[in-house]
Amino acid sequence: MAEKQDEEKAQNTEESNGKIKANKPAPPPENITMLGSDIEIMCDQPMPQYDSGDIKAYAARLKSGKSCFALICENFLVPRTFLTSKFSQLANMNIVRIVASGVTFWPPEKRQRYVFVYEDTLGNKILPPDQPQAMGMKQERLMNAVIKPLVVLLLELRDADLIHGGIRATNIYDGNANNFENIILGEALSAPPTYHQPSIYMPIEKAICPPYARGISNFSDDIFALGVTILTLMRQEDPFADMREEEMVRQRVEHGTYSFFTTHQRTTGPLMELVRGLLHDDWQQRWTIEEVLAWMDGKRLAPKKQKTARTKAVRAFDYEGYKIIRPESFAYELQFNPKVAKDTIVDEAFETWIQRSLSNDKITTDFHDAKHSAELHGKDGNYPDRLLSKTITTLFPGAPIIYKNLKAMPEGVGYLAAYLFGNHANTQALEEIIKYNLVAFWAKIAEHTGTETQNLKQKFESAQANTMHKKLGFGVEGNLYYLCPEAPCLSPILNNYCVRSPEDLLMALDDLCAKTKKTDGFYDKHIISFLMARDKKVIESELMELNSFEVHKSKAALLKIFSNIQERAGMRGLPNLCRGLLVYLTPLLERTHDRKKKEELKKTAEGIADNGSIPKLERLINNKKSKKEDKTRFINALREYKSISDEQAHLEHQLTNNPKFGFGTGFEVAAIISGIITALVILAATFLQYSKGGIF
Length: 696
Hints:
By secondary structure, the protein is α+β, with helices and mostly antiparallel strands. It has six domains: 2-119, Phosphorylase Kinase, domain 1, CATH 3.30.200.20; 139-296, Orthogonal Bundle (Transferase(Phosphotransferase), domain 1), CATH 1.10.510.10; 311-396; 492-622, no CATH class; 624-660; 662-696. It is 50% helix and 10% strand. It contains 29 helices and 14 strands. The strands form five sheets. The protein has a six-stranded antiparallel beta sheet. A hairpin with a 2-residue loop joins strand 11 (317-319) and strand 12 (322-324). Helix 14 (383-395) runs parallel beside helix 17. It is elongated, with a radius of gyration of 38 Å. The termini are far apart. Residues 1-25 have low confidence and may be disordered.
């Protein structure tokens, strides 16, 4: 019964068409979990035909009975949740339709997961990934059944300022129709941008990157993927079935993507002109969607004038068994054996090859800049790695930043951070990429390629400043949420939760307190950094106190932060969290000096905690007027105590050191008493005398 109640608490939000709805569904059967109140997800009914790589699909249905499927996301593979609303508004029938998305409790793992729910109208994949990647479709059929629908869809995506990031032959379905009359493009939101794309579907620079670190995609990437998709569906057999990915990328870097494809597969026909335009390695030379439409209308397009020819050495450089004539090829090879690479780039022969054989003034100048900037942090233990990274960037502008064991496009550094933290991997190299601001050098080299770099440089200058601070809210954790703002909170405290907002954080902590009777450890570097990125206003004013070494100040600051979140969001009561906080805040309650007031304060606080109001608890404990009055009374009591103590000490000193101490006072008191007694005797005698004389 308790477990079902916990599930019910976890299933309290649904993000549908960009909106979040609160609900309290009835407890479902153990093999069913709910998203909102009207979507059931069958945990025991996997649908592998709809899996997106690591993201697994399960059967789902609406209350109306409509069949759907749900994709169960991973926190560290940050899904593109911010695009849910835009994609749900697309009216095109050639793309899978999203029904809802949000956080649900996932019974098989007994933790929360983010899910996307789509209509189950896809049918079968026209080319399953476990088969040879070739279909041999006739070009006319390919044009009508696949190319035209995808081009229209791409036009709609472009107009909606959307990038799909998942166009590939293995992500196209038949829509349960014969002869490809109603193809449907599958999803691409359940993981980082282009995460599911095989490297062959990516432009060369991003093909070098691991999928989780490619970063924000652009529309030109979708155009490129369309070209590879067309070639894949055209060819009769797969020439790359036995070729390693590393070798495919090596040949693409050396010869260019289009030459690489046409060398390994002899394909002719009218579509090859389109393919050539789509597969240009220079994104500025690659066809736009308007040029594709013009070609489809029968217009012959003149080749774009290339700004500069690719650099080629007049003499090959022998490196690790390869005779290298392209600087890009050299950059690609340098990543595989760092020890040899570091020795090579400091050798005089390498610099001579750059100056004389490449005969490219820009590369020569950039290499000198690379050496100089690598020395700015001194020739410490990381100097060879900095120099190697900057040398690779110099030889291959636009390629990913390669540093030690990490590779990432600049816009992918945030996604890389999420992946590393989510897998409990070492983040030292990541911190050094930001600390040494390797992105600034990358941006400087990439400027001539037409890449917009100004915003990128500003962003990483701020990230570099963050690394200099080791306090809560900064450091490598701070940069994770700064560079990847859509990442959920990856704190180990919240391992079983999917926390995507400050409100989610309080709900998760309340549930955690109910299950574990938690009374401490309500925050860490991740949680504070997450709040800084998601809602700076609720935490910024308290950050200094939160970082204080004085325990009572940091605890009071945390209480204020949680109070701000609950009050601003108008959240329901959180009694479990409040009770846990009450124990956690015991040192603050103990600071009240008046014993009676302290007991009254504790009793009142317990009543507030039972109602779950953190703002009321905060106002009670952090009441400045009450604190001031208590302090004033305490100071007055201290003064009175000191006065009495001083007098007592003085008397004891005099009694000990002055034998005649008190004699004078005794004489005075004795005289006064004697006087009083004498007066009383005289009065009595007089009274008796007159009484005998009959006066009365």
